[in-house]
Amino acid sequence: MSETVTDVEYEPVVGMECHAELLTNSKMFCGCKNEFGGEPNTRCCPVCVGMPGALPVMNKGAVEFVIRASLALNCQINPHAKFDRKNYFYPDLPKGYQISEYDVPIGVKGWLDIEVNGVTKRIHIRRVHLEEDTGKLFHVAGDDSHVDLNRSGVPLMEIVTDFPPDIQSAEEGRAYLVKLRAILTYIGVCDGKMEEGSLRCEPNVSVRPVGSNSFGTKTEIKNLNSFRAVFKGIEFETLRQGEILNSGGRVIQETRGWNDAKQVTFSQRSKEGEEEYRYFPEPDLVPLFISEEWIEQVRASMPELPDARRDRFSAEYGLSAYDAAFLTENRALADYYEQSAKLSGDPKSAANWMMGDLSKLLNSSSTEIGDCPVSPEALAQMVGLINDGTISGKIAKALIEEMYSTSGVPLEIVEARGWRTIRDAGAVQAAVDKVFAANADVVTAIIEKGLVAKRGFLVGQVMRETQGKADPGEVNRLIDAKLGLQG
Ligand SMILES: [Zn+2]
Protein backbone atom coordinates (compact mmCIF):
# COMPACT_ATOMS: atom_id res chain seq x y z
CA MET A 1 0.00 0.00 0.00
CA SER A 2 1.17 3.49 -0.74
CA GLU A 3 1.87 5.90 2.06
CA THR A 4 0.18 8.91 0.42
CA VAL A 5 -1.49 11.11 3.00
CA THR A 6 -4.32 13.33 1.83
CA ASP A 7 -4.96 16.46 3.86
CA VAL A 8 -8.36 16.54 5.49
CA GLU A 9 -10.43 19.60 4.69
CA TYR A 10 -11.78 21.40 7.77
CA GLU A 11 -14.73 23.72 8.33
CA PRO A 12 -15.12 26.14 11.25
CA VAL A 13 -17.80 26.01 13.94
CA VAL A 14 -18.22 29.43 15.49
CA GLY A 15 -19.88 30.65 18.68
CA MET A 16 -20.20 34.39 19.29
CA GLU A 17 -20.03 36.38 22.49
CA CYS A 18 -20.75 40.05 21.96
CA HIS A 19 -20.62 42.86 24.49
CA ALA A 20 -22.55 46.07 23.88
CA GLU A 21 -22.13 49.16 26.05
CA LEU A 22 -25.58 50.60 26.63
CA LEU A 23 -26.44 54.20 25.75
CA THR A 24 -27.81 55.15 29.16
CA ASN A 25 -27.02 58.58 30.61
CA SER A 26 -25.57 57.19 33.81
CA LYS A 27 -23.67 54.07 34.83
CA MET A 28 -25.20 50.75 35.89
CA PHE A 29 -25.22 51.12 39.69
CA CYS A 30 -24.37 54.80 40.37
CA GLY A 31 -25.09 58.28 39.04
CA CYS A 32 -21.74 58.79 37.28
CA LYS A 33 -21.97 59.91 33.67
CA ASN A 34 -21.75 57.16 31.04
CA GLU A 35 -19.61 58.54 28.23
CA PHE A 36 -16.69 57.39 26.08
CA GLY A 37 -13.15 58.67 26.75
CA GLY A 38 -12.45 61.81 28.76
CA GLU A 39 -9.72 62.64 31.26
CA PRO A 40 -8.91 59.34 33.08
CA ASN A 41 -10.61 58.73 36.44
CA THR A 42 -12.85 61.81 36.29
CA ARG A 43 -16.19 60.00 36.10
CA CYS A 44 -16.00 57.78 39.16
CA CYS A 45 -17.50 57.55 42.64
CA PRO A 46 -17.17 55.17 45.61
CA VAL A 47 -19.69 52.77 44.00
CA CYS A 48 -18.03 52.33 40.61
CA VAL A 49 -14.49 52.22 41.98
CA GLY A 50 -15.62 49.57 44.46
CA MET A 51 -15.03 51.20 47.85
CA PRO A 52 -15.94 48.90 50.76
CA GLY A 53 -19.45 49.61 52.01
CA ALA A 54 -20.64 51.49 48.90
CA LEU A 55 -24.03 50.19 47.77
CA PRO A 56 -25.17 49.74 44.16
CA VAL A 57 -28.50 51.17 42.97
CA MET A 58 -29.91 49.56 39.85
CA ASN A 59 -30.30 51.64 36.68
CA LYS A 60 -33.83 50.92 35.48
CA GLY A 61 -33.07 52.38 32.04
CA ALA A 62 -30.33 49.80 31.50
CA VAL A 63 -32.70 46.95 32.42
CA GLU A 64 -35.25 48.35 29.97
CA PHE A 65 -32.62 48.51 27.19
CA VAL A 66 -31.84 44.82 27.72
CA ILE A 67 -35.56 43.98 27.62
CA ARG A 68 -35.81 45.95 24.37
CA ALA A 69 -32.79 44.18 22.85
CA SER A 70 -34.09 40.79 24.03
CA LEU A 71 -37.45 41.43 22.35
CA ALA A 72 -35.76 42.65 19.15
CA LEU A 73 -33.75 39.40 19.18
CA ASN A 74 -36.93 37.32 19.59
CA CYS A 75 -36.03 36.19 23.11
CA GLN A 76 -38.28 35.10 25.94
CA ILE A 77 -38.03 37.36 28.97
CA ASN A 78 -37.43 35.89 32.43
CA PRO A 79 -39.88 37.67 34.75
CA HIS A 80 -37.61 37.02 37.73
CA ALA A 81 -34.08 37.69 36.56
CA LYS A 82 -31.37 38.30 39.13
CA PHE A 83 -27.85 39.60 39.50
CA ASP A 84 -24.87 37.56 40.66
CA ARG A 85 -21.32 38.24 41.64
CA LYS A 86 -18.63 36.95 39.32
CA ASN A 87 -15.48 36.87 41.41
CA TYR A 88 -12.03 37.27 39.90
CA PHE A 89 -8.93 39.35 40.42
CA TYR A 90 -7.68 41.73 37.79
CA PRO A 91 -6.21 45.24 38.12
CA ASP A 92 -9.05 46.83 36.10
CA LEU A 93 -11.63 45.48 38.58
CA PRO A 94 -10.86 47.09 41.97
CA LYS A 95 -13.68 45.50 43.96
CA GLY A 96 -12.61 41.97 42.99
CA TYR A 97 -15.94 41.01 41.45
CA GLN A 98 -18.18 42.01 38.59
CA ILE A 99 -21.95 42.24 39.00
CA SER A 100 -23.40 40.09 36.24
CA GLU A 101 -26.21 37.62 35.62
CA TYR A 102 -25.36 33.95 35.93
CA ASP A 103 -28.15 31.40 35.81
CA VAL A 104 -31.24 33.59 35.24
CA PRO A 105 -30.47 36.14 32.52
CA ILE A 106 -33.08 38.65 31.31
CA GLY A 107 -33.45 37.26 27.77
CA VAL A 108 -33.24 33.61 26.62
CA LYS A 109 -33.87 31.46 23.53
CA GLY A 110 -33.84 34.10 20.80
CA TRP A 111 -32.64 34.29 17.21
CA LEU A 112 -31.81 36.57 14.33
CA ASP A 113 -31.73 35.84 10.60
CA ILE A 114 -28.72 36.46 8.38
CA GLU A 115 -28.44 36.36 4.58
CA VAL A 116 -25.28 35.04 2.95
CA ASN A 117 -25.14 34.60 -0.84
CA GLY A 118 -28.89 35.02 -1.08
CA VAL A 119 -29.61 32.27 1.47
CA THR A 120 -31.34 33.11 4.75
CA LYS A 121 -30.07 31.32 7.85
CA ARG A 122 -31.36 31.51 11.41
CA ILE A 123 -28.74 32.02 14.13
CA HIS A 124 -30.02 30.99 17.54
CA ILE A 125 -29.20 33.07 20.60
CA ARG A 126 -28.89 31.40 23.96
CA ARG A 127 -28.97 34.40 26.28
CA VAL A 128 -28.93 38.17 26.63
CA HIS A 129 -27.82 39.46 30.00
CA LEU A 130 -26.84 42.62 31.81
CA GLU A 131 -23.61 43.27 33.67
CA GLU A 132 -21.19 46.09 34.44
CA ASP A 133 -18.10 46.94 32.42
CA THR A 134 -14.62 46.98 33.98
CA GLY A 135 -12.02 49.73 33.96
CA LYS A 136 -9.28 49.93 31.37
CA LEU A 137 -5.56 49.34 31.68
CA PHE A 138 -2.96 51.36 29.82
CA HIS A 139 0.55 50.06 29.38
CA VAL A 140 2.91 52.93 28.73
CA ALA A 141 6.62 53.08 27.93
CA GLY A 142 8.79 50.99 30.20
CA ASP A 143 6.99 48.73 32.65
CA ASP A 144 4.42 51.29 33.77
CA SER A 145 0.74 50.35 33.78
CA HIS A 146 -2.08 52.77 34.57
CA VAL A 147 -5.74 52.18 35.25
CA ASP A 148 -8.64 54.38 34.09
CA LEU A 149 -11.92 53.68 35.89
CA ASN A 150 -14.17 55.92 33.76
CA ARG A 151 -15.52 52.77 32.08
CA SER A 152 -15.88 50.90 35.37
CA GLY A 153 -19.59 50.31 36.01
CA VAL A 154 -20.80 51.23 32.52
CA PRO A 155 -23.87 49.09 31.72
CA LEU A 156 -22.85 46.24 29.47
CA MET A 157 -25.11 43.79 27.67
CA GLU A 158 -23.78 40.39 26.68
CA ILE A 159 -25.32 38.43 23.80
CA VAL A 160 -24.30 34.80 23.42
CA THR A 161 -25.19 32.49 20.53
CA ASP A 162 -26.62 29.04 21.22
CA PHE A 163 -24.93 25.66 21.28
CA PRO A 164 -24.52 23.78 18.98
CA PRO A 165 -23.37 26.82 16.99
CA ASP A 166 -25.20 27.77 13.79
CA ILE A 167 -22.35 29.87 12.38
CA GLN A 168 -20.21 27.78 10.04
CA SER A 169 -18.06 30.19 8.08
CA ALA A 170 -16.23 33.51 8.32
CA GLU A 171 -18.90 35.05 6.05
CA GLU A 172 -21.66 33.93 8.39
CA GLY A 173 -19.74 35.25 11.39
CA ARG A 174 -19.43 38.66 9.78
CA ALA A 175 -23.08 38.64 8.63
CA TYR A 176 -24.19 37.83 12.20
CA LEU A 177 -22.28 40.78 13.61
CA VAL A 178 -23.50 43.14 10.86
CA LYS A 179 -27.10 42.16 11.58
CA LEU A 180 -26.66 42.33 15.37
CA ARG A 181 -25.13 45.79 15.11
CA ALA A 182 -27.94 46.95 12.83
CA ILE A 183 -30.59 45.75 15.31
CA LEU A 184 -28.88 47.29 18.35
CA THR A 185 -28.39 50.65 16.63
CA TYR A 186 -31.95 50.68 15.20
CA ILE A 187 -33.44 50.23 18.66
CA GLY A 188 -31.06 52.85 20.08
CA VAL A 189 -29.53 50.80 22.91
CA CYS A 190 -25.90 50.91 21.67
CA ASP A 191 -24.01 53.21 19.29
CA GLY A 192 -22.29 50.20 17.68
CA LYS A 193 -18.88 51.89 17.52
CA MET A 194 -16.57 48.90 17.28
CA GLU A 195 -13.46 51.09 17.01
CA GLU A 196 -14.30 52.71 20.39
CA GLY A 197 -15.10 49.34 21.95
CA SER A 198 -18.77 50.04 22.56
CA LEU A 199 -19.55 46.88 20.56
CA ARG A 200 -17.03 44.08 21.14
CA CYS A 201 -17.11 40.65 19.64
CA GLU A 202 -15.31 37.50 20.71
CA PRO A 203 -15.81 34.55 18.39
CA ASN A 204 -14.82 31.11 19.62
CA VAL A 205 -13.67 28.93 16.79
CA SER A 206 -13.14 25.19 16.46
CA VAL A 207 -12.82 23.12 13.30
CA ARG A 208 -14.04 19.71 12.17
CA PRO A 209 -13.70 17.70 8.97
CA VAL A 210 -16.15 19.03 6.38
CA GLY A 211 -19.42 17.15 6.69
CA SER A 212 -18.72 15.74 10.17
CA ASN A 213 -20.81 16.72 13.19
CA SER A 214 -18.14 16.34 15.84
CA PHE A 215 -16.74 19.27 17.82
CA GLY A 216 -13.08 20.13 18.15
CA THR A 217 -11.16 22.15 20.74
CA LYS A 218 -12.06 25.81 20.54
CA THR A 219 -10.04 28.97 20.83
CA GLU A 220 -11.44 32.38 21.64
CA ILE A 221 -10.34 35.44 19.65
CA LYS A 222 -10.18 38.81 21.39
CA ASN A 223 -9.66 42.45 20.35
CA LEU A 224 -11.50 42.29 17.03
CA ASN A 225 -12.65 45.84 16.36
CA SER A 226 -14.13 45.75 12.87
CA PHE A 227 -16.34 43.52 10.72
CA ARG A 228 -13.32 42.81 8.56
CA ALA A 229 -11.23 41.74 11.56
CA VAL A 230 -13.98 39.32 12.63
CA PHE A 231 -14.04 37.80 9.13
CA LYS A 232 -10.25 37.60 8.88
CA GLY A 233 -9.86 36.31 12.45
CA ILE A 234 -12.25 33.38 11.90
CA GLU A 235 -10.65 32.63 8.54
CA PHE A 236 -7.16 32.66 10.05
CA GLU A 237 -8.12 30.40 12.97
CA THR A 238 -9.80 27.92 10.62
CA LEU A 239 -6.64 27.61 8.54
CA ARG A 240 -4.30 27.55 11.54
CA GLN A 241 -6.23 24.82 13.36
CA GLY A 242 -6.65 22.79 10.16
CA GLU A 243 -2.90 22.88 9.55
CA ILE A 244 -2.15 21.78 13.12
CA LEU A 245 -4.52 18.82 12.84
CA ASN A 246 -3.26 17.85 9.39
CA SER A 247 0.30 17.76 10.69
CA GLY A 248 -0.73 15.46 13.53
CA GLY A 249 -0.79 18.13 16.24
CA ARG A 250 -3.38 19.07 18.86
CA VAL A 251 -5.28 22.37 19.12
CA ILE A 252 -4.83 23.96 22.55
CA GLN A 253 -7.80 25.59 24.24
CA GLU A 254 -6.73 29.18 24.73
CA THR A 255 -7.51 32.85 24.32
CA ARG A 256 -5.88 34.40 21.28
CA GLY A 257 -5.40 38.06 20.43
CA TRP A 258 -5.78 39.58 16.97
CA ASN A 259 -2.89 41.44 15.36
CA ASP A 260 -4.60 43.64 12.79
CA ALA A 261 -1.36 44.80 11.15
CA LYS A 262 -0.16 41.24 10.51
CA GLN A 263 -3.69 39.77 10.11
CA VAL A 264 -2.86 36.88 12.45
CA THR A 265 -4.05 35.61 15.82
CA PHE A 266 -1.51 35.03 18.58
CA SER A 267 -1.59 33.09 21.85
CA GLN A 268 -2.51 35.19 24.91
CA ARG A 269 -3.23 32.69 27.66
CA SER A 270 -4.18 29.07 27.79
CA LYS A 271 -7.60 28.28 29.12
CA GLU A 272 -7.49 24.62 30.05
CA GLY A 273 -10.68 23.87 31.91
CA GLU A 274 -13.37 26.30 33.07
CA GLU A 275 -12.33 29.21 35.20
CA GLU A 276 -13.81 29.21 38.70
CA TYR A 277 -15.71 32.45 39.28
CA ARG A 278 -17.48 31.36 42.50
CA TYR A 279 -20.74 32.95 41.37
CA PHE A 280 -23.31 33.72 44.07
CA PRO A 281 -26.43 35.94 44.14
CA GLU A 282 -25.56 39.63 44.58
CA PRO A 283 -26.57 40.36 48.18
CA ASP A 284 -26.77 44.14 47.72
CA LEU A 285 -29.47 44.03 45.03
CA VAL A 286 -33.03 42.68 45.12
CA PRO A 287 -33.99 40.26 42.32
CA LEU A 288 -35.54 41.89 39.27
CA PHE A 289 -39.24 41.67 38.67
CA ILE A 290 -40.14 42.26 35.05
CA SER A 291 -43.93 42.50 34.78
CA GLU A 292 -45.94 41.55 31.71
CA GLU A 293 -47.11 45.20 31.54
CA TRP A 294 -43.53 46.45 31.42
CA ILE A 295 -42.64 43.99 28.65
CA GLU A 296 -45.71 45.02 26.63
CA GLN A 297 -44.88 48.70 27.13
CA VAL A 298 -41.37 48.13 25.77
CA ARG A 299 -42.74 46.05 22.89
CA ALA A 300 -45.19 48.81 21.97
CA SER A 301 -42.39 51.40 21.83
CA MET A 302 -40.21 49.25 19.55
CA PRO A 303 -39.23 51.00 16.29
CA GLU A 304 -39.30 49.25 12.93
CA LEU A 305 -36.46 46.69 12.83
CA PRO A 306 -33.95 46.27 9.97
CA ASP A 307 -35.57 43.19 8.35
CA ALA A 308 -39.03 44.75 8.40
CA ARG A 309 -37.70 47.98 6.98
CA ARG A 310 -35.82 46.13 4.25
CA ASP A 311 -38.98 44.26 3.21
CA ARG A 312 -41.01 47.47 3.28
CA PHE A 313 -38.42 49.31 1.15
CA SER A 314 -38.68 46.54 -1.45
CA ALA A 315 -42.46 46.66 -1.49
CA GLU A 316 -42.97 50.40 -1.16
CA TYR A 317 -40.13 51.75 -3.30
CA GLY A 318 -39.66 48.88 -5.75
CA LEU A 319 -36.03 48.28 -4.70
CA SER A 320 -34.19 45.04 -5.46
CA ALA A 321 -33.38 42.78 -2.52
CA TYR A 322 -29.74 43.86 -2.73
CA ASP A 323 -30.51 47.58 -2.79
CA ALA A 324 -33.02 47.30 0.05
CA ALA A 325 -30.51 45.38 2.19
CA PHE A 326 -27.76 47.90 1.45
CA LEU A 327 -29.92 50.91 2.31
CA THR A 328 -31.20 49.46 5.60
CA GLU A 329 -27.85 48.32 6.95
CA ASN A 330 -27.94 51.08 9.52
CA ARG A 331 -30.72 53.32 10.72
CA ALA A 332 -29.11 56.63 9.71
CA LEU A 333 -28.64 55.39 6.15
CA ALA A 334 -32.22 54.12 5.96
CA ASP A 335 -33.59 57.38 7.38
CA TYR A 336 -31.54 59.39 4.87
CA TYR A 337 -32.76 57.24 1.99
CA GLU A 338 -36.39 57.33 3.02
CA GLN A 339 -36.34 61.11 3.26
CA SER A 340 -34.68 61.66 -0.11
CA ALA A 341 -36.90 59.03 -1.79
CA LYS A 342 -40.05 60.76 -0.55
CA LEU A 343 -38.88 64.32 -1.29
CA SER A 344 -37.68 63.48 -4.82
CA GLY A 345 -40.69 61.34 -5.73
CA ASP A 346 -38.21 59.06 -7.53
CA PRO A 347 -37.15 56.32 -5.07
CA LYS A 348 -35.21 54.33 -7.66
CA SER A 349 -33.08 57.27 -8.76
CA ALA A 350 -32.47 58.37 -5.14
CA ALA A 351 -31.27 54.82 -4.37
CA ASN A 352 -28.94 54.78 -7.39
CA TRP A 353 -27.32 58.09 -6.48
CA MET A 354 -26.90 57.05 -2.84
CA MET A 355 -25.41 53.65 -3.62
CA GLY A 356 -23.23 55.01 -6.42
CA ASP A 357 -21.72 58.50 -6.40
CA LEU A 358 -22.67 59.47 -2.85
CA SER A 359 -21.30 56.24 -1.32
CA LYS A 360 -18.03 56.74 -3.19
CA LEU A 361 -17.71 60.30 -1.91
CA LEU A 362 -18.48 59.20 1.67
CA ASN A 363 -16.00 56.31 1.49
CA SER A 364 -13.20 58.37 0.01
CA SER A 365 -13.47 60.90 2.84
CA SER A 366 -14.21 58.25 5.55
CA THR A 367 -17.43 60.05 6.42
CA GLU A 368 -20.53 58.49 7.99
CA ILE A 369 -23.92 59.18 6.42
CA GLY A 370 -24.90 61.10 9.56
CA ASP A 371 -22.19 63.69 8.74
CA CYS A 372 -22.86 63.78 4.99
CA PRO A 373 -22.42 67.34 3.62
CA VAL A 374 -25.21 66.64 1.09
CA SER A 375 -28.58 66.74 2.85
CA PRO A 376 -31.45 64.43 1.81
CA GLU A 377 -33.27 67.60 0.64
CA ALA A 378 -30.34 68.55 -1.61
CA LEU A 379 -30.10 65.05 -3.08
CA ALA A 380 -33.84 65.06 -3.74
CA GLN A 381 -33.59 68.47 -5.45
CA MET A 382 -30.78 67.20 -7.65
CA VAL A 383 -32.84 64.17 -8.72
CA GLY A 384 -35.67 66.59 -9.51
CA LEU A 385 -33.37 68.71 -11.69
CA ILE A 386 -32.40 65.64 -13.72
CA ASN A 387 -36.00 64.47 -14.05
CA ASP A 388 -37.38 67.82 -15.20
CA GLY A 389 -34.60 68.15 -17.78
CA THR A 390 -32.84 71.12 -16.13
CA ILE A 391 -29.55 69.19 -16.13
CA SER A 392 -28.26 66.02 -17.77
CA GLY A 393 -27.20 62.93 -15.84
CA LYS A 394 -23.62 63.64 -16.88
CA ILE A 395 -23.71 67.14 -15.41
CA ALA A 396 -25.30 65.68 -12.26
CA LYS A 397 -22.13 63.66 -11.62
CA ALA A 398 -20.12 66.89 -11.47
CA LEU A 399 -22.89 68.60 -9.53
CA ILE A 400 -23.01 66.04 -6.71
CA GLU A 401 -19.25 66.35 -6.25
CA GLU A 402 -19.57 70.10 -5.87
CA MET A 403 -22.55 69.71 -3.54
CA TYR A 404 -20.43 67.34 -1.47
CA SER A 405 -17.44 69.67 -1.20
CA THR A 406 -19.42 72.89 -0.63
CA SER A 407 -22.74 71.73 0.93
CA GLY A 408 -24.25 74.08 -1.67
CA VAL A 409 -27.82 74.21 -2.99
CA PRO A 410 -28.01 72.24 -6.27
CA LEU A 411 -29.98 74.80 -8.29
CA GLU A 412 -27.69 77.65 -7.17
CA ILE A 413 -24.60 75.68 -8.23
CA VAL A 414 -26.20 74.87 -11.61
CA GLU A 415 -26.95 78.57 -12.23
CA ALA A 416 -23.53 79.77 -11.07
CA ARG A 417 -21.76 77.22 -13.25
CA GLY A 418 -24.01 77.64 -16.28
CA TRP A 419 -24.86 73.92 -16.20
CA ARG A 420 -28.44 74.14 -17.41
CA THR A 421 -29.30 71.89 -20.34
CA ILE A 422 -29.19 73.79 -23.63
CA ARG A 423 -32.79 74.55 -24.58
CA ASP A 424 -31.85 76.27 -27.81
CA ALA A 425 -32.55 73.65 -30.51
CA GLY A 426 -30.43 75.62 -32.99
CA ALA A 427 -27.35 75.37 -30.74
CA VAL A 428 -27.68 71.60 -30.42
CA GLN A 429 -28.25 71.26 -34.17
CA ALA A 430 -25.10 73.31 -34.77
CA ALA A 431 -23.12 70.96 -32.52
CA VAL A 432 -24.50 67.93 -34.40
CA ASP A 433 -23.57 69.47 -37.74
CA LYS A 434 -20.06 70.23 -36.51
CA VAL A 435 -19.53 66.66 -35.24
CA PHE A 436 -20.81 65.15 -38.52
CA ALA A 437 -18.43 67.35 -40.52
CA ALA A 438 -15.46 66.43 -38.35
CA ASN A 439 -16.22 62.67 -38.43
CA ALA A 440 -17.25 62.11 -42.00
CA ASP A 441 -15.62 58.64 -42.03
CA VAL A 442 -17.77 57.47 -39.12
CA VAL A 443 -20.91 58.89 -40.69
CA THR A 444 -20.12 57.12 -43.96
CA ALA A 445 -19.48 53.81 -42.14
CA ILE A 446 -22.87 54.05 -40.46
CA ILE A 447 -24.83 54.98 -43.54
CA GLU A 448 -23.06 52.80 -46.12
CA LYS A 449 -21.90 49.79 -44.11
CA GLY A 450 -24.79 49.84 -41.64
CA LEU A 451 -22.44 50.08 -38.63
CA VAL A 452 -25.17 51.47 -36.37
CA ALA A 453 -23.09 50.57 -33.31
CA LYS A 454 -20.83 53.52 -34.10
CA ARG A 455 -23.75 55.88 -33.61
CA GLY A 456 -22.99 56.09 -29.89
CA PHE A 457 -19.63 57.63 -30.72
CA LEU A 458 -21.37 60.54 -32.46
CA VAL A 459 -23.70 61.02 -29.48
CA GLY A 460 -20.66 61.16 -27.20
CA GLN A 461 -18.94 63.71 -29.42
CA VAL A 462 -22.00 65.98 -29.46
CA MET A 463 -22.30 65.76 -25.66
CA ARG A 464 -18.65 66.66 -25.45
CA GLU A 465 -19.09 69.56 -27.88
CA THR A 466 -21.93 70.90 -25.70
CA GLN A 467 -19.99 70.25 -22.45
CA GLY A 468 -22.62 67.72 -21.39
CA LYS A 469 -25.33 70.36 -21.37
CA ALA A 470 -27.39 69.10 -24.32
CA ASP A 471 -30.47 67.02 -23.58
CA PRO A 472 -29.42 63.46 -24.54
CA GLY A 473 -32.91 62.70 -25.89
CA GLU A 474 -32.72 65.73 -28.15
CA VAL A 475 -29.20 64.80 -29.31
CA ASN A 476 -30.30 61.27 -30.20
CA ARG A 477 -33.29 62.58 -32.11
CA LEU A 478 -31.24 65.06 -34.15
CA ILE A 479 -28.50 62.52 -34.93
CA ASP A 480 -31.01 59.90 -36.08
CA ALA A 481 -32.73 62.48 -38.25
CA LYS A 482 -29.46 63.49 -39.88
CA LEU A 483 -28.43 59.86 -40.43
CA GLY A 484 -31.81 59.17 -41.96
CA LEU A 485 -32.46 56.44 -39.38
CA GLN A 486 -35.71 57.96 -38.25
CA GLY A 487 -39.09 56.57 -39.25
ZN1 LIG B 1 -19.86 55.99 39.98
Write a structural description.
The chain is of the alpha+beta class. 39% of the residues lie in helices and 18% in strands. It folds into 3 domains: 285 residues, no CATH class; 103 residues, no CATH class; 59 residues. It has a 9-stranded mixed sheet with strand order 2-5-6-9-1-10-11-12-13. The chain has a 3-stranded antiparallel sheet with strand order 4-3-14, with no helix packed on it. Strands 7-8 form a two-stranded antiparallel sheet. A hairpin with a 4-residue loop joins strand 12 and strand 13. Helix 5 runs parallel beside helix 7. It is elongated and about 90 Å long. Bound molecules: zinc ion (ZN). The site of zinc ion (ZN) has 8 residues, from loops.
Strand content: 15-25%
Number of helices: 15
* Tally of strands: 14
Poorly predicted regions: none
Strand arrangement across the biggest beta sheet: 2-5-6-9-1-10-11-12-13
Helical residue percent? 25-40%
Q: Topology of this protein?
A:
Blueprint (H helix, E strand, L loop, with lengths): L9 E12 L38 H13 L3 E2 L6 E4 L9 E4 L6 E10 L2 E14 L3 E4 L5 E4 L6 E7 L8 H17 L12 E11 L9 E3 L5 H20 L7 E6 L4 E7 L9 E2 L10 H9 L5 H12 L3 H7 L3 H14 L2 H18 L11 H12 L5 H14 L3 H8 L7 H14 L1 H10 L5 H11 L6 H12 L4
Parallel strand pairs: 11-12
Antiparallel strand pairs: 1-9, 1-10, 2-5, 3-4, 3-14, 5-6, 6-9, 7-8, 10-11, 12-13
Helix pairs in contact: 2-3, 5-6, 5-7, 7-8, 7-9, 9-10, 12-14, 12-15, 14-15
